[in-house]
Specification:
The complex is a heterodimer of chains A (298) and B (489). Chain A is α/β, with parallel strands linked by helices. Chain A has a single domain, classed as Aldehyde Dehydrogenase, Chain A, domain 1 (3-Layer(aba) Sandwich). Chain A has helices at 57-76, 79-95, 97-106, 111-131, 135-139, 172-183, 198-208, 224-233, 247-257, 280-284, and strands spanning 38-43, 47-53, 141-142, 149-157, 160-164, 187-191, 217-220, 239-242, 263-266, 287-295. Chain B is an alpha/beta fold and 489 residues long. Chain B is built from 16 helices and 20 strands. The chains are: A alpha/beta (298), B alpha/beta (489). The A-B interface holds A 138, 141, 143-147, 149, 151, 153, 156, 158, 238, 247, 251-252, 254-255, 257-261, 263, 279, 281, 288-295 and B 137, 154-156, 248, 251-253, 255-256, 258-260, 267, 269, 424, 439, 443-444, 448-455, 458, 460, 462-466, 468-473, 475, 478-480, 488.
């Protein structure tokens, strides 16, 4: 249970605010961790902000099942519709900008920076919504083969993508990694910033109201140290995006990911506030190229 | 089951006179050194291994075995060439060197084809008509990209990666060298290339050729050796990029070795492609496609159509026609122009294939082999079918890399897709049907990087090639192939 806002003394209370329980987001539902575990998010030494679900390996496996089940339909969803769903998420976030800024502030982000981050997150969703039906044309080719064939190459989503969201940018860092993955028809499991987790779960509410089908984006909170290993070694995950800068962890992820040749995308030290760091190449990171040969004849 | 009333008996009605490709115009030295910095130099440890002709089991040449020190020398030569000459050359001039290579390969095509067949065992018809022309075309295609890279990556500036370490397999030795070297050089990189242990000769001839076209020393270095040579190259601290084509197993080892490094990498690994034949397909054409899919190059093809998925209603007909067609395949002397299926590349590979034949039978599969005759010496495997196999059988799930086809049937399109996609691989696939809409439904839903509709095993320098899932990452060929050899800013 989170306790937002000032903490008034008991005697002066005219109304007790209803605090939010922060849970996980798996398969379009908001379960607590199956493990029953939590960690306390505190401000300063004493004040409890919320008890955050400490997601388990089992929670992660459940999320992979959800993401895999959602993948087929989402990858076939028209690009136009994917664009609209992403744009809808931007609309929902815009409407709740004040809440997200307040959550960031609550977690220690300066007020001005918090507002900038929320605005950038909204704009990033709009940016990738716009790409959802365009990157295919940028990355596709018709290949002039010498034989009598019509030959073309198109990008297709890699599959299920596990995203270890940047620790230092609770909302924008996550949105900047999730949006290009799902714009490209992938489904994902996000491991939220451990120290700035509030916006991640509130963002799940935004997604929930944005026509994202259940399972397309799943969001877990918990200890990265504990969850990175099962995440990088899961055999039904096709790609891992690592948004932090720990070289040892990056190495471990790549070693474990080798077992099923996961694509590993390292996005270390990226300034997510800068619009320079958004591009269709971020979509391309979780795309495969398919080349199709078709005879020309009668 | 429909069978033609009368059949041609190729073994009795037809006699082929031998039609061997002449080898008197080719020169293979008795010993080959390492090609480093534009010179052939002896390996530090003076160790050599033999490259043999798998059709005769005779030694063709002694070839240097590069150790860690030799790998280091090659990388130093490549770095020096990168710093001093290649990266300073105007891109258009880089391209002209590549054009020269392409042209000289065309001039010497017959020689390269004959050596390729001698060293690797593949039929001369294939090395002459596929491997060598495609290798030359690959250099020609990428030559033209050298001064046009700014058009390939919208919104980004492309710069070379630096020194590329490249490790290639034995199934298409010269062609794989071309796939690796051409885009790397076009993008401004220098290379250290390690050919496979059993098929080093055409890469060494290519080394001679780069000298003949005055390619600056050190731009292309060829080091021969086995797995430990490759490992030393992968681990070398001054290599900026690793490009590997080979087995998924070794690919995973390389990924683990590269884990802590900042090296770029692309991998083209194994496959277990499904060739899917619907009842409405042109059956005779499909049978040709199945044969080409699995028996091309003795089945030593990562994208081979090694699984046949045939719709139940036409399964008997397709399999009967397939067996008839298989009976006409000539297995024998790779240098003979009549030969359809050459020698298995090595004793070790033959042993691996034969192990799978035992596994397939032990798993309950029904094995059929064409009744062809085989030469006395050399490594040979009859074209083989397995029917009655389950999706979980190892001959259905694992790459055999030989002329062995696993046959399954399906009823619905969905069942075909489920079975086709149900392996860890995703390199290629084939669809045979007369219906255009069905083709595109299938080609879209197959999780593989290269899909052939009503054709199979077609390649072109302009067509990107590479895998999904455990079949690798990155593309070779076409505009997409440039991405493997540039950094984007």
């Amino acid at each position: 249970m989170a306790r937002p806002g000032k903490s008034p003394s008991a005697r002066s209370v005219s109304r007790v605010p209803v605090a939010k329980t922060y849970k996980l987001y798996i398969d379009g539902k908001f379960p607590r961790s199956e493990s029953g575990r939590y960690y306390s998010l505190q401000r300063g030494d004493t004040r409890l902000l919320a008890n955050i679900c400490r997601g388990s390996r089992k929670d992660f496996r459940d999320a992979v099942v959800a993401a895999r089940n959602a993948w087929g339909a989402w990858s076939r969803t028209s690009a136009y519709l994917r664009a609209q769903v992403l744009y809808r998420a931007a609309e929902m976030l815009e409407g709740r900008a004040a809440q997200f800024a307040a959550e960031l502030v609550l977690q220690g982000v300066a007020r001005r920076q918090a507002r900038t981050e929320v605005a950038a997150a909204i704009d990033r969703l709009v940016y990738y919504a716009g790409w959802a039906d365009k990157y295919q044309q940028v990355f596709s080719t018709v290949n002039p083969v010498s034989t009598s064939h019509f030959n073309f190459s198109v990008p297709e989503p890699t599959g299920v993508v596990a995203i270890i969201a940047p620790e230092t940018s609770g909302l924008l860092g996550m949105v900047s990694n999730v949006a290009p993955a799902v714009a490209g028809g992938n489904t994902c499991i996000v491991l939220a910033s451990q120290s700035l987790p509030l916006c991640a779960i509130s963002f799940a509410e935004v997604l929930h109201a944005s026509d994202f089908p259940a399972g397309v984006i799943n969001i877990l909170t918990g200890r990265k140290e504990e969850l990175i290993e099962p995440l990088a070694s899961h055999m039904d995950v096709n790609a891992v995006i690592y948004g932090d800068a720990d070289a040892q962890v990056a190495r471990k992820i790549r070693e474990l990911a080798a077992e099923n040749v996961k694509r590993v995308i390292l996005r270390c030290g990226v300034d997510w506030n800068s619009a320079e760091n958004q591009s269709p190449y971020s979509i391309g990171d979780t795309q495969e190229t398919k080349t199709t040969w078709h005879p020309i004849g009668s | 089951m429909t069978r033609p009333e009368s059949r041609l008996r190729f073994d009795t009605d037809w006699k082929y006179s031998a039609a061997p490709e002449s080898t008197d115009h080719i020169r293979v030295d008795s010993q080959y050194e390492l090609f480093i910095g534009g010179k052939f130099i002896a390996p530090g440890a003076r160790q050599y291994f033999e490259s043999i002709n798998p059709a005769s089991e005779k030694v063709l040449a002694r070839v240097a075995r590069a150790d860690r020190g030799d790998v280091d020398r090659a990388v130093i030569a490549a770095r020096r060439a990168y710093d001093r000459s290649w990266s300073k050359l105007r891109p258009a001039e880089r391209g002209k060197y590549l054009y020269r290579i392409a042209r000289m390969l065309q001039e010497r095509a017959r020689e390269f084809a004959a050596i390729e067949s001698l060293d690797g065992g593949k039929p001369i018809r294939e090395s002459r008509d596929v491997d060598v022309p495609l290798a030359a075309a690959h250099f020609f295609y990428y030559a033209g990209w050298a001064d046009k890279l700014e058009y390939a990556f919208p919104g980004r500036r492309a710069t070379p990666v630096g020194v590329a370490g490249q490790i290639i397999p034995w199934n298409f030795p010269l062609l794989m060298a071309a796939w690796k070297i051409a885009p790397a050089l076009a993008c401004g990189n220098t290379v250290v290339l390690k050919p496979a242990e059993t098929t080093p000769l055409t890469a060494l001839k290519l080394a001679e050729l780069t000298r003949d076209v005055d390619l600056p020393p050190g731009v292309v270095n060829i080091i021969t050796g086995a797995g430990d040579t490759g490992a030393a190259l992968v681990e070398h601290a001054d290599v900026d990029k690793i490009a590997f084509t080979g087995s998924t197993e070794v690919g995973k080892q390389i990924l683990r070795r590269l884990a802590g490094s900042g090296k770029h990498y692309t991998l083209e690994l194994g496959g277990k492609a499904a060739n899917i034949v619907f009842a409405d397909a042109a059956i005779d054409q499909a049978v040709e496609g199945i044969v080409n899919g699995i028996f091309f190059n003795q089945g030593h093809v990562c994208c081979a159509g090694s699984r046949l998925l045939v719709q139940e209603s036409v399964a008997d007909e397709v399999i009967a026609k397939l067996k008839e067609r298989m009976a006409t395949l000539i297995v024998g002397d790779p240098l003979d122009k009549n030969t359809d299926i050459g020698a298995i590349n090595s004793a070790a590979q033959l042993e691996k294939i034969e192990q799978y034949l035992r596994i397939g039978q032990a798993e309950g599969g029904e094995m059929y082999q064409s009744p062809c005759s085989l030469p006395e010496t050399g490594y040979w495997c009859r074209p083989t079918l397995f029917s009655g196999v389950a999706q979980s059988n190892r001959v259905v799930q694992e790459e055999i890399f030989g002329p062995v086809l696993a046959i399954q049937t399906f009823r619905s399109l969905e069942e075909a897709l489920d079975k086709a996609n149900n392996t860890p691989y995703g390199l290629s696939g084939g669809v045979w049907t007369d219906k255009g809409a069905k083709i595109f439904k299938m080609t879209r839903a197959l999780r593989a990087g290269v899909i052939w509709a009503n054709t199979f095993n077609k390649f072109d320098p302009s067509a990107p090639f590479g895998g999904y899932k455990e079949s690798g990452m990155g593309r070779e060929g076409g505009l997409h192939g440039l991405g493997a050899y540039v950094e984007l800013h």
